[in-house]
Amino acid sequence: MAEIIANLDKVSVSLAGRPIFGELSWELQAGQRVGLVGPNGAGKSTLLKLIAQELPADSGNIFRVSGLTWGRLAQEPALPPGQTVLAETLTAVPAIAGIEQKLSHWEQKMGQPEVYGDPAALEKVMARHEKLLAAHEQMDGPRYQSLVKEILSQLGFGAERWDNLTDHLSGGQKKLVMLAKLIVQRPRLLLLDEPDNHLDLAAKRKLERIIHRYEGCVVIISHDRYLLDEVVTHIAELENGRLSLYHGNYTAYANERALRRLRQQQLYAAQQKEIARIEAAIKRFELWASMVVDERHIRQARSRQKMLDKMDKVEKVTEARRMALGLAGWRGSKKSVELVDVVKTFDNNHALFRGLNLTLWHGERVGLVGPNGAGKSYLLKQMLNPDSIDGGQVKIGPSSKIGYYAQEQETLDYAQTPLEMICQSAPVSRETAVAFLYRFLFTYDQVQQPIGKLSGGERSRLQLARLVLDKPNLLLLDEPTNNLDIPSIEVLEETLDEFVGTVMVISHDRYFLDKAVDRVVELRDGRFTEFLGGYTDYLVKTGQGE
Predict the structure, then answer these.
(1) Strand order in the sheet with 335-345
(2) For labeling, which of 13, 204, 365, 384 is most exposed (least CB within 10 Å)?
(3) Nearest 5 degrees, angle CA 182-CA 15-CA 450?
Protein backbone atom coordinates (compact mmCIF):
# COMPACT_ATOMS: atom_id res chain seq x y z
CA MET A 1 0.00 0.00 0.00
CA ALA A 2 1.28 3.46 -0.90
CA GLU A 3 2.47 5.73 1.89
CA ILE A 4 -0.10 8.27 3.14
CA ILE A 5 1.65 11.65 3.24
CA ALA A 6 -1.35 13.81 4.23
CA ASN A 7 -4.79 13.05 5.61
CA LEU A 8 -7.72 15.42 6.06
CA ASP A 9 -10.19 14.09 8.63
CA LYS A 10 -13.66 15.66 8.77
CA VAL A 11 -12.37 19.14 8.00
CA SER A 12 -14.77 22.09 7.82
CA VAL A 13 -14.03 25.59 6.49
CA SER A 14 -16.15 28.76 6.26
CA LEU A 15 -15.16 32.05 4.66
CA ALA A 16 -16.94 35.29 5.59
CA GLY A 17 -19.62 33.23 7.30
CA ARG A 18 -20.29 31.10 4.21
CA PRO A 19 -19.61 27.35 4.60
CA ILE A 20 -17.22 26.14 1.87
CA PHE A 21 -17.10 22.48 2.85
CA GLY A 22 -18.02 20.50 5.96
CA GLU A 23 -16.56 17.30 7.45
CA LEU A 24 -14.47 16.69 4.33
CA SER A 25 -12.06 13.73 4.43
CA TRP A 26 -9.24 13.03 1.95
CA GLU A 27 -6.09 10.90 1.84
CA LEU A 28 -3.09 11.92 -0.28
CA GLN A 29 -0.60 9.16 -1.08
CA ALA A 30 2.99 9.25 -2.30
CA GLY A 31 3.24 9.04 -6.09
CA GLN A 32 -0.34 10.12 -6.81
CA ARG A 33 -1.07 12.76 -9.44
CA VAL A 34 -4.54 14.05 -8.61
CA GLY A 35 -6.71 16.36 -10.69
CA LEU A 36 -8.93 18.44 -8.39
CA VAL A 37 -12.09 19.41 -10.30
CA GLY A 38 -15.42 21.02 -9.52
CA PRO A 39 -17.49 24.09 -10.42
CA ASN A 40 -16.18 27.62 -9.82
CA GLY A 41 -16.74 28.58 -6.20
CA ALA A 42 -16.70 24.98 -4.93
CA GLY A 43 -13.61 25.71 -2.79
CA LYS A 44 -10.80 24.06 -4.78
CA SER A 45 -8.24 26.84 -4.19
CA THR A 46 -9.33 27.05 -0.55
CA LEU A 47 -8.64 23.33 -0.16
CA LEU A 48 -5.08 23.71 -1.51
CA LYS A 49 -4.44 26.64 0.87
CA LEU A 50 -5.72 24.49 3.73
CA ILE A 51 -3.31 21.65 2.87
CA ALA A 52 -0.46 24.18 2.54
CA GLN A 53 -1.21 25.59 6.04
CA GLU A 54 -2.06 29.00 4.58
CA LEU A 55 -5.58 28.79 5.99
CA PRO A 56 -6.87 27.35 9.29
CA ALA A 57 -9.69 24.81 9.45
CA ASP A 58 -12.78 25.62 11.51
CA SER A 59 -12.90 22.03 12.71
CA GLY A 60 -11.42 18.61 11.97
CA ASN A 61 -7.81 17.45 11.80
CA ILE A 62 -5.06 17.47 9.17
CA PHE A 63 -2.28 14.90 9.49
CA ARG A 64 0.98 15.40 7.61
CA VAL A 65 3.71 12.79 7.62
CA SER A 66 6.81 13.82 9.58
CA GLY A 67 9.20 15.91 7.50
CA LEU A 68 6.68 16.48 4.69
CA THR A 69 7.66 19.36 2.41
CA TRP A 70 5.20 21.06 0.10
CA GLY A 71 4.94 23.95 -2.33
CA ARG A 72 1.86 25.70 -3.72
CA LEU A 73 1.66 27.44 -7.08
CA ALA A 74 -0.87 30.26 -6.66
CA GLN A 75 -3.50 30.99 -9.29
CA GLU A 76 -2.35 34.60 -9.76
CA PRO A 77 1.37 34.91 -10.61
CA ALA A 78 3.41 37.45 -8.60
CA LEU A 79 7.16 38.01 -9.07
CA PRO A 80 9.34 40.85 -7.74
CA PRO A 81 10.25 43.45 -10.40
CA GLY A 82 13.73 44.05 -11.78
CA GLN A 83 14.91 40.43 -11.67
CA THR A 84 16.05 38.34 -14.61
CA VAL A 85 14.45 34.96 -15.22
CA LEU A 86 17.60 33.10 -14.12
CA ALA A 87 18.32 35.27 -11.07
CA GLU A 88 14.72 34.95 -9.86
CA THR A 89 14.70 31.16 -10.26
CA LEU A 90 18.01 30.89 -8.40
CA THR A 91 16.29 32.37 -5.32
CA ALA A 92 14.23 29.16 -5.01
CA VAL A 93 16.52 27.73 -2.30
CA PRO A 94 17.72 30.72 -0.23
CA ALA A 95 19.82 28.47 2.03
CA ILE A 96 22.16 27.63 -0.86
CA ALA A 97 22.64 31.32 -1.69
CA GLY A 98 23.35 31.96 2.00
CA ILE A 99 25.99 29.25 2.19
CA GLU A 100 27.62 30.46 -1.03
CA GLN A 101 27.79 33.98 0.40
CA LYS A 102 29.49 32.63 3.56
CA LEU A 103 31.89 30.52 1.47
CA SER A 104 32.89 33.63 -0.45
CA HIS A 105 33.44 35.48 2.84
CA TRP A 106 35.80 32.81 4.26
CA GLU A 107 37.62 32.43 0.94
CA GLN A 108 38.39 36.15 1.05
CA LYS A 109 39.60 35.70 4.63
CA MET A 110 42.06 33.04 3.49
CA GLY A 111 43.64 35.65 1.17
CA GLN A 112 44.28 38.13 3.97
CA PRO A 113 47.95 38.28 5.20
CA GLU A 114 46.96 38.21 8.88
CA VAL A 115 45.19 34.88 8.22
CA TYR A 116 47.47 33.00 5.80
CA GLY A 117 50.51 34.23 7.80
CA ASP A 118 49.11 32.77 11.03
CA PRO A 119 48.86 28.93 10.93
CA ALA A 120 46.37 28.81 13.82
CA ALA A 121 44.10 31.46 12.27
CA LEU A 122 44.34 29.82 8.84
CA GLU A 123 43.44 26.42 10.28
CA LYS A 124 40.42 27.94 12.02
CA VAL A 125 39.21 29.65 8.82
CA MET A 126 39.79 26.50 6.74
CA ALA A 127 37.81 24.41 9.23
CA ARG A 128 34.84 26.76 8.92
CA HIS A 129 35.20 26.77 5.14
CA GLU A 130 35.32 22.98 5.03
CA LYS A 131 32.22 22.71 7.20
CA LEU A 132 30.32 25.05 4.85
CA LEU A 133 31.57 23.09 1.83
CA ALA A 134 30.18 19.88 3.32
CA ALA A 135 26.79 21.57 3.91
CA HIS A 136 26.88 22.97 0.38
CA GLU A 137 27.61 19.51 -1.03
CA GLN A 138 24.83 17.94 1.04
CA MET A 139 22.33 20.43 -0.44
CA ASP A 140 23.57 19.60 -3.97
CA GLY A 141 24.92 23.14 -4.17
CA PRO A 142 27.67 22.50 -6.78
CA ARG A 143 24.99 21.30 -9.24
CA TYR A 144 22.36 23.83 -8.21
CA GLN A 145 22.84 26.39 -10.96
CA SER A 146 22.97 23.75 -13.70
CA LEU A 147 19.80 22.14 -12.25
CA VAL A 148 17.99 25.51 -12.35
CA LYS A 149 19.05 26.07 -15.97
CA GLU A 150 17.98 22.54 -16.92
CA ILE A 151 14.49 23.01 -15.42
CA LEU A 152 14.08 26.42 -17.05
CA SER A 153 15.02 24.87 -20.41
CA GLN A 154 12.48 22.06 -19.89
CA LEU A 155 9.78 24.70 -19.32
CA GLY A 156 10.67 26.58 -22.51
CA PHE A 157 13.12 29.15 -21.15
CA GLY A 158 16.28 28.52 -23.18
CA ALA A 159 19.63 30.23 -22.49
CA GLU A 160 18.67 33.13 -24.76
CA ARG A 161 15.86 34.06 -22.33
CA TRP A 162 17.64 33.73 -18.96
CA ASP A 163 18.56 37.43 -18.92
CA ASN A 164 15.00 38.60 -19.75
CA LEU A 165 13.42 40.67 -17.00
CA THR A 166 10.44 39.03 -15.30
CA ASP A 167 8.59 42.38 -15.62
CA HIS A 168 8.20 41.72 -19.36
CA LEU A 169 6.82 38.18 -19.04
CA SER A 170 3.20 37.27 -19.75
CA GLY A 171 1.02 35.88 -16.96
CA GLY A 172 1.55 32.33 -18.22
CA GLN A 173 5.34 32.78 -18.42
CA LYS A 174 5.45 34.16 -14.87
CA LYS A 175 3.61 31.05 -13.73
CA LEU A 176 6.24 28.87 -15.40
CA VAL A 177 9.04 30.72 -13.58
CA MET A 178 7.19 30.21 -10.29
CA LEU A 179 6.72 26.54 -11.17
CA ALA A 180 10.44 26.21 -11.98
CA LYS A 181 11.26 27.56 -8.50
CA LEU A 182 8.94 25.01 -6.90
CA ILE A 183 10.42 22.10 -8.87
CA VAL A 184 13.95 23.17 -7.90
CA GLN A 185 12.87 22.93 -4.25
CA ARG A 186 11.63 19.33 -4.87
CA PRO A 187 8.82 19.25 -2.29
CA ARG A 188 7.23 15.86 -1.70
CA LEU A 189 3.81 17.45 -2.25
CA LEU A 190 3.29 19.82 -5.18
CA LEU A 191 0.04 21.84 -5.17
CA LEU A 192 -0.68 23.49 -8.54
CA ASP A 193 -3.57 25.96 -8.92
CA GLU A 194 -4.36 26.27 -12.66
CA PRO A 195 -0.71 26.00 -13.81
CA ASP A 196 -1.78 25.91 -17.48
CA ASN A 197 -3.70 29.21 -17.54
CA HIS A 198 -2.52 31.54 -20.35
CA LEU A 199 -0.05 28.98 -21.72
CA ASP A 200 0.11 28.29 -25.44
CA LEU A 201 -0.12 24.73 -26.77
CA ALA A 202 3.66 24.14 -26.89
CA ALA A 203 4.08 25.34 -23.28
CA LYS A 204 1.22 23.05 -22.15
CA ARG A 205 3.00 20.03 -23.63
CA LYS A 206 6.20 21.00 -21.77
CA LEU A 207 4.19 21.35 -18.56
CA GLU A 208 2.73 17.86 -19.05
CA ARG A 209 6.20 16.33 -19.43
CA ILE A 210 7.42 18.07 -16.24
CA ILE A 211 4.44 16.81 -14.20
CA HIS A 212 4.85 13.29 -15.64
CA ARG A 213 8.47 13.16 -14.48
CA TYR A 214 7.89 14.66 -11.05
CA GLU A 215 8.66 12.11 -8.34
CA GLY A 216 6.47 13.50 -5.56
CA CYS A 217 2.71 13.67 -5.10
CA VAL A 218 1.04 16.31 -7.30
CA VAL A 219 -2.41 17.89 -6.91
CA ILE A 220 -3.56 19.97 -9.91
CA ILE A 221 -6.53 22.30 -10.22
CA SER A 222 -7.19 22.68 -13.94
CA HIS A 223 -10.06 23.19 -16.38
CA ASP A 224 -7.92 21.69 -19.16
CA ARG A 225 -9.43 18.22 -19.61
CA TYR A 226 -6.74 17.28 -22.13
CA LEU A 227 -4.01 17.95 -19.54
CA LEU A 228 -5.96 15.99 -16.92
CA ASP A 229 -6.27 13.09 -19.38
CA GLU A 230 -2.53 13.14 -20.03
CA VAL A 231 -1.04 13.42 -16.53
CA VAL A 232 -3.32 12.42 -13.64
CA THR A 233 -3.77 9.05 -11.95
CA HIS A 234 -6.85 10.11 -9.94
CA ILE A 235 -9.61 12.71 -10.09
CA ALA A 236 -10.94 14.30 -6.88
CA GLU A 237 -14.30 15.97 -7.46
CA LEU A 238 -15.30 18.75 -5.05
CA GLU A 239 -18.98 19.61 -5.32
CA ASN A 240 -21.55 20.83 -2.80
CA GLY A 241 -18.96 20.65 -0.02
CA ARG A 242 -18.20 16.96 -0.62
CA LEU A 243 -15.18 15.27 -2.14
CA SER A 244 -15.39 12.08 -4.24
CA LEU A 245 -12.29 10.23 -5.48
CA TYR A 246 -12.11 8.44 -8.84
CA HIS A 247 -9.29 6.28 -10.22
CA GLY A 248 -7.93 7.11 -13.66
CA ASN A 249 -7.76 10.21 -15.83
CA TYR A 250 -10.48 12.74 -16.68
CA THR A 251 -12.20 10.61 -19.35
CA ALA A 252 -12.31 7.61 -16.98
CA TYR A 253 -13.75 9.90 -14.28
CA ALA A 254 -16.43 11.30 -16.59
CA ASN A 255 -17.55 7.77 -17.56
CA GLU A 256 -17.44 6.41 -14.00
CA ARG A 257 -19.25 9.48 -12.62
CA ALA A 258 -22.06 9.00 -15.13
CA LEU A 259 -22.36 5.30 -14.15
CA ARG A 260 -22.32 6.09 -10.42
CA ARG A 261 -25.04 8.68 -10.81
CA LEU A 262 -27.14 6.31 -12.93
CA ARG A 263 -26.79 3.56 -10.27
CA GLN A 264 -27.59 6.06 -7.52
CA GLN A 265 -30.72 7.23 -9.34
CA GLN A 266 -31.85 3.63 -9.84
CA LEU A 267 -31.29 2.84 -6.14
CA TYR A 268 -33.08 6.04 -5.14
CA ALA A 269 -36.09 5.19 -7.31
CA ALA A 270 -36.24 1.62 -5.92
CA GLN A 271 -35.93 2.87 -2.32
CA GLN A 272 -38.60 5.54 -2.80
CA LYS A 273 -40.92 2.81 -4.05
CA GLU A 274 -40.16 0.71 -0.95
CA ILE A 275 -40.62 3.73 1.36
CA ALA A 276 -44.01 4.46 -0.25
CA ARG A 277 -45.03 0.81 0.30
CA ILE A 278 -44.02 0.92 4.00
CA GLU A 279 -45.69 4.29 4.59
CA ALA A 280 -48.92 2.97 3.04
CA ALA A 281 -48.76 -0.06 5.38
CA ILE A 282 -48.24 2.24 8.40
CA LYS A 283 -51.28 4.32 7.47
CA ARG A 284 -53.32 1.15 6.96
CA PHE A 285 -52.41 -0.29 10.39
CA GLU A 286 -52.99 3.11 12.08
CA LEU A 287 -56.43 3.29 10.42
CA TRP A 288 -57.32 -0.24 11.57
CA ALA A 289 -56.08 0.53 15.09
CA SER A 290 -58.33 3.64 15.26
CA MET A 291 -61.35 1.69 14.03
CA VAL A 292 -60.98 -1.23 16.44
CA VAL A 293 -58.67 -0.57 19.33
CA ASP A 294 -56.26 -3.40 18.61
CA GLU A 295 -52.79 -3.36 20.20
CA ARG A 296 -51.51 -5.74 17.49
CA HIS A 297 -52.20 -3.17 14.72
CA ILE A 298 -50.49 -0.44 16.78
CA ARG A 299 -47.40 -2.64 17.26
CA GLN A 300 -47.31 -3.42 13.52
CA ALA A 301 -47.46 0.30 12.67
CA ARG A 302 -44.66 1.09 15.16
CA SER A 303 -42.53 -1.80 13.84
CA ARG A 304 -42.72 -0.53 10.29
CA GLN A 305 -42.01 3.05 11.41
CA LYS A 306 -38.84 1.86 13.16
CA MET A 307 -37.86 0.01 9.97
CA LEU A 308 -38.32 3.26 8.05
CA ASP A 309 -36.35 5.33 10.58
CA LYS A 310 -33.37 2.93 10.50
CA MET A 311 -33.22 2.76 6.71
CA ASP A 312 -30.04 4.29 5.15
CA LYS A 313 -31.50 6.81 2.77
CA VAL A 314 -30.14 7.01 -0.78
CA GLU A 315 -29.80 10.63 -1.84
CA LYS A 316 -31.58 11.83 -4.91
CA VAL A 317 -29.20 12.67 -7.79
CA THR A 318 -29.18 16.43 -8.21
CA GLU A 319 -27.38 18.08 -11.10
CA ALA A 320 -25.68 21.40 -10.41
CA ARG A 321 -27.43 24.24 -12.18
CA ARG A 322 -25.80 24.82 -15.58
CA MET A 323 -25.59 27.89 -17.73
CA ALA A 324 -28.33 28.06 -20.41
CA LEU A 325 -26.54 29.55 -23.40
CA GLY A 326 -28.97 29.33 -26.32
CA LEU A 327 -26.91 30.67 -29.24
CA ALA A 328 -29.14 29.73 -32.16
CA GLY A 329 -27.53 31.50 -35.13
CA TRP A 330 -29.09 31.61 -38.60
CA ARG A 331 -28.23 30.97 -42.24
CA GLY A 332 -26.15 33.67 -43.91
CA SER A 333 -23.66 34.19 -46.73
CA LYS A 334 -22.08 31.11 -48.26
CA LYS A 335 -18.67 32.78 -47.78
CA SER A 336 -18.74 34.09 -44.20
CA VAL A 337 -15.25 35.61 -44.32
CA GLU A 338 -12.52 35.83 -46.94
CA LEU A 339 -8.97 37.04 -46.24
CA VAL A 340 -7.03 38.06 -49.35
CA ASP A 341 -3.27 38.80 -49.03
CA VAL A 342 -3.77 40.38 -45.58
CA VAL A 343 -0.74 42.27 -44.23
CA LYS A 344 0.11 43.77 -40.85
CA THR A 345 3.35 45.72 -40.35
CA PHE A 346 4.58 47.91 -37.51
CA ASP A 347 6.36 51.28 -37.64
CA ASN A 348 9.77 49.55 -37.61
CA ASN A 349 8.78 47.65 -40.78
CA HIS A 350 8.50 44.42 -38.81
CA ALA A 351 5.74 42.29 -40.41
CA LEU A 352 3.48 40.43 -38.00
CA PHE A 353 2.03 38.62 -41.00
CA ARG A 354 2.15 39.13 -44.75
CA GLY A 355 0.01 37.66 -47.53
CA LEU A 356 -2.52 35.75 -45.38
CA ASN A 357 -5.23 34.01 -47.42
CA LEU A 358 -8.17 32.12 -45.89
CA THR A 359 -11.86 31.46 -46.59
CA LEU A 360 -14.40 30.60 -43.89
CA TRP A 361 -17.48 28.91 -45.34
CA HIS A 362 -20.92 29.00 -43.75
CA GLY A 363 -21.29 26.29 -41.11
CA GLU A 364 -17.55 25.73 -40.58
CA ARG A 365 -15.91 25.48 -37.15
CA VAL A 366 -12.29 26.64 -37.42
CA GLY A 367 -9.72 26.59 -34.62
CA LEU A 368 -6.97 29.23 -34.91
CA VAL A 369 -3.81 28.06 -33.12
CA GLY A 370 -0.19 29.14 -32.90
CA PRO A 371 2.41 30.37 -30.40
CA ASN A 372 1.72 33.36 -28.16
CA GLY A 373 2.66 36.53 -30.00
CA ALA A 374 1.93 35.12 -33.48
CA GLY A 375 -0.87 37.67 -33.99
CA LYS A 376 -3.98 35.51 -33.57
CA SER A 377 -5.93 37.98 -31.40
CA TYR A 378 -4.85 40.89 -33.58
CA LEU A 379 -6.15 39.09 -36.68
CA LEU A 380 -9.58 38.60 -35.10
CA LYS A 381 -9.73 42.30 -34.25
CA GLN A 382 -8.87 43.17 -37.86
CA MET A 383 -11.80 41.07 -39.00
CA LEU A 384 -14.02 43.30 -36.84
CA ASN A 385 -12.66 46.40 -38.60
CA PRO A 386 -11.65 45.42 -42.18
CA ASP A 387 -10.78 49.03 -43.11
CA SER A 388 -7.94 49.11 -40.55
CA ILE A 389 -5.66 46.57 -42.26
CA ASP A 390 -2.30 47.65 -43.71
CA GLY A 391 -2.71 45.69 -46.92
CA GLY A 392 -4.90 43.13 -48.66
CA GLN A 393 -8.60 42.68 -48.03
CA VAL A 394 -10.89 41.29 -45.35
CA LYS A 395 -14.25 40.51 -46.97
CA ILE A 396 -17.15 39.87 -44.59
CA GLY A 397 -20.15 38.15 -46.20
CA PRO A 398 -23.07 40.60 -46.75
CA SER A 399 -25.39 38.39 -44.67
CA SER A 400 -22.84 37.76 -41.90
CA LYS A 401 -23.43 39.32 -38.48
CA ILE A 402 -20.40 39.08 -36.19
CA GLY A 403 -20.48 38.16 -32.52
CA TYR A 404 -17.11 38.80 -30.84
CA TYR A 405 -15.78 37.38 -27.57
CA ALA A 406 -12.70 39.27 -26.29
CA GLN A 407 -9.96 37.38 -24.45
CA GLU A 408 -9.12 40.35 -22.18
CA GLN A 409 -12.83 41.17 -21.70
CA GLU A 410 -12.17 44.74 -22.86
CA THR A 411 -15.60 44.87 -24.54
CA LEU A 412 -17.21 45.09 -21.08
CA ASP A 413 -17.72 48.39 -19.27
CA TYR A 414 -16.42 47.62 -15.76
CA ALA A 415 -18.32 50.59 -14.26
CA GLN A 416 -21.70 49.23 -15.46
CA THR A 417 -23.70 46.59 -13.64
CA PRO A 418 -24.71 43.41 -15.54
CA LEU A 419 -28.32 44.59 -15.26
CA GLU A 420 -27.49 47.94 -16.91
CA MET A 421 -25.53 46.18 -19.65
CA ILE A 422 -28.41 43.84 -20.57
CA CYS A 423 -31.02 46.63 -20.50
CA GLN A 424 -28.75 48.72 -22.75
CA SER A 425 -28.19 45.80 -25.17
CA ALA A 426 -31.86 44.87 -25.57
CA PRO A 427 -35.23 46.61 -25.03
CA VAL A 428 -36.31 44.49 -22.06
CA SER A 429 -37.75 45.24 -18.64
CA ARG A 430 -35.69 45.04 -15.47
CA GLU A 431 -37.50 41.86 -14.43
CA THR A 432 -36.84 40.20 -17.81
CA ALA A 433 -33.16 41.20 -17.64
CA VAL A 434 -32.80 39.68 -14.15
CA ALA A 435 -34.45 36.44 -15.34
CA PHE A 436 -32.17 36.39 -18.40
CA LEU A 437 -29.02 36.79 -16.25
CA TYR A 438 -30.28 34.04 -13.92
CA ARG A 439 -29.88 31.66 -16.92
CA PHE A 440 -26.18 32.55 -16.80
CA LEU A 441 -25.91 31.64 -13.09
CA PHE A 442 -25.96 35.20 -11.71
CA THR A 443 -27.60 35.92 -8.37
CA TYR A 444 -29.79 38.97 -7.75
CA ASP A 445 -26.98 40.63 -5.77
CA GLN A 446 -24.42 40.01 -8.54
CA VAL A 447 -26.53 41.61 -11.29
CA GLN A 448 -26.47 44.89 -9.31
CA GLN A 449 -22.69 44.94 -8.69
CA PRO A 450 -20.25 46.79 -10.98
CA ILE A 451 -18.86 44.38 -13.59
CA GLY A 452 -15.35 45.22 -12.36
CA LYS A 453 -16.12 43.45 -9.06
CA LEU A 454 -17.10 40.18 -10.76
CA SER A 455 -14.70 37.24 -11.04
CA GLY A 456 -13.08 36.28 -14.33
CA GLY A 457 -15.52 33.39 -14.76
CA GLU A 458 -18.53 35.63 -14.11
CA ARG A 459 -17.31 38.19 -16.65
CA SER A 460 -16.82 35.38 -19.18
CA ARG A 461 -20.43 34.25 -18.71
CA LEU A 462 -21.53 37.87 -19.10
CA GLN A 463 -19.78 38.14 -22.47
CA LEU A 464 -21.56 34.98 -23.59
CA ALA A 465 -24.89 36.44 -22.40
CA ARG A 466 -24.38 39.48 -24.61
CA LEU A 467 -23.54 37.25 -27.58
CA VAL A 468 -26.98 35.66 -27.17
CA LEU A 469 -28.61 39.10 -27.32
CA ASP A 470 -26.56 40.09 -30.40
CA LYS A 471 -27.96 37.09 -32.34
CA PRO A 472 -24.91 36.63 -34.62
CA ASN A 473 -24.33 33.97 -37.27
CA LEU A 474 -20.53 34.47 -37.37
CA LEU A 475 -18.74 33.94 -34.07
CA LEU A 476 -15.18 35.21 -33.53
CA LEU A 477 -14.15 33.80 -30.15
CA ASP A 478 -10.82 34.64 -28.50
CA GLU A 479 -10.06 32.14 -25.71
CA PRO A 480 -13.71 31.71 -24.64
CA THR A 481 -12.94 28.85 -22.22
CA ASN A 482 -10.47 30.86 -20.12
CA ASN A 483 -11.95 31.32 -16.62
CA LEU A 484 -14.95 29.05 -17.32
CA ASP A 485 -15.39 25.92 -15.21
CA ILE A 486 -15.74 22.55 -16.92
CA PRO A 487 -19.59 22.37 -16.75
CA SER A 488 -19.82 25.80 -18.47
CA ILE A 489 -17.25 24.75 -21.10
CA GLU A 490 -19.37 21.66 -21.83
CA VAL A 491 -22.44 23.88 -22.32
CA LEU A 492 -20.44 26.03 -24.74
CA GLU A 493 -19.35 22.92 -26.68
CA GLU A 494 -22.92 21.65 -26.95
CA THR A 495 -24.13 25.10 -28.06
CA LEU A 496 -21.46 25.47 -30.77
CA ASP A 497 -22.34 21.99 -32.04
CA GLU A 498 -25.94 23.13 -32.63
CA PHE A 499 -25.09 26.69 -33.75
CA VAL A 500 -26.39 27.58 -37.23
CA GLY A 501 -23.53 29.67 -38.53
CA THR A 502 -19.74 29.93 -38.71
CA VAL A 503 -17.27 29.81 -35.85
CA MET A 504 -13.64 30.89 -35.69
CA VAL A 505 -12.12 30.30 -32.27
CA ILE A 506 -8.70 30.92 -30.76
CA SER A 507 -8.11 28.45 -27.96
CA HIS A 508 -5.37 26.71 -26.02
CA ASP A 509 -7.96 24.25 -24.63
CA ARG A 510 -7.10 21.12 -26.60
CA TYR A 511 -10.05 19.03 -25.38
CA PHE A 512 -12.36 21.89 -26.43
CA LEU A 513 -10.68 22.12 -29.86
CA ASP A 514 -11.18 18.38 -30.38
CA LYS A 515 -14.87 18.74 -29.54
CA ALA A 516 -15.68 22.05 -31.20
CA VAL A 517 -13.74 22.43 -34.49
CA ASP A 518 -13.49 20.53 -37.77
CA ARG A 519 -10.56 22.49 -39.22
CA VAL A 520 -7.39 23.79 -37.55
CA VAL A 521 -5.50 26.78 -38.97
CA GLU A 522 -2.03 27.39 -37.54
CA LEU A 523 -0.58 30.92 -37.61
CA ARG A 524 3.18 30.70 -37.23
CA ASP A 525 5.95 32.99 -38.46
CA GLY A 526 3.39 35.13 -40.28
CA ARG A 527 1.92 32.27 -42.34
CA PHE A 528 -1.14 30.03 -42.31
CA THR A 529 -1.02 26.23 -42.44
CA GLU A 530 -4.36 24.39 -42.60
CA PHE A 531 -5.26 20.95 -41.21
CA LEU A 532 -8.58 19.11 -41.49
CA GLY A 533 -9.95 17.68 -38.24
CA GLY A 534 -9.60 18.60 -34.57
CA TYR A 535 -6.62 19.18 -32.33
CA THR A 536 -5.57 15.50 -32.15
CA ASP A 537 -5.60 15.28 -35.96
CA TYR A 538 -3.46 18.43 -36.07
CA LEU A 539 -0.96 16.87 -33.64
CA VAL A 540 -0.66 13.71 -35.71
CA LYS A 541 -0.24 15.61 -39.00
CA THR A 542 2.45 17.87 -37.54
CA GLY A 543 4.32 14.94 -35.97
CA GLN A 544 3.73 16.24 -32.44
CA GLY A 545 1.44 13.42 -31.35
CA GLU A 546 4.20 10.84 -30.97
Answers:
(1) 351-361, 335-345, 391-396
(2) 384
(3) 95
**How do residues 47-72 score in pLDDT, each as one tens digit?**
999 999 999 999 999 999 999 999 99
Q: Is 12 helix (H, G, I), strand (E, B) or coil?
A: strand
Task: Return the domain boundaries, the chain.
Answer: 254-310, 335-541
Listed residue (104, 189, 44) closest to 485, CA to CA: 44
pLDDT, averaged across the chain: 87
pLDDT digits (tens, 9 = 90+) for 100-124: 778 777 778 777 787 677 787 777 8
Cα distance between residue 237 and residue 500, in whole Å: 34
Class of the domain covering 335-541: alpha beta
Cβ neighbours of residue 82 closer than 8 Å, sequence gap 6 or more = 165, 167
Strand partners, 523: 528
CA 67 to chain centre: 30
Residue 81, phi-psi category: left (phi > 0), alpha (psi -120 to 50), beta (remainder) = beta
Question: CB pairs under 8 A, 24+ apart, for 261-270?
Answer: 261/317, 264/314, 264/315, 264/317, 265/316, 265/317, 267/314, 268/314, 268/315, 268/316, 268/317
Q: Which residues pair with 476 in a beta bridge?
A: 404, 504
Q: Is pLDDT of 97 > 80?
A: no
pLDDT in tens, 485-530: 888 899 999 999 999 999 999 998 899 999 999 999 999 988 999 9
Q: Cβ(491)–Cβ(461) under 8 Å?
A: no
- Report the alpha-carbon distance of residue 436 to residue 429 in Å, rounded: 10
The model's pTM is 0.79
Cβ(21)–Cβ(13) below 8 Å = yes
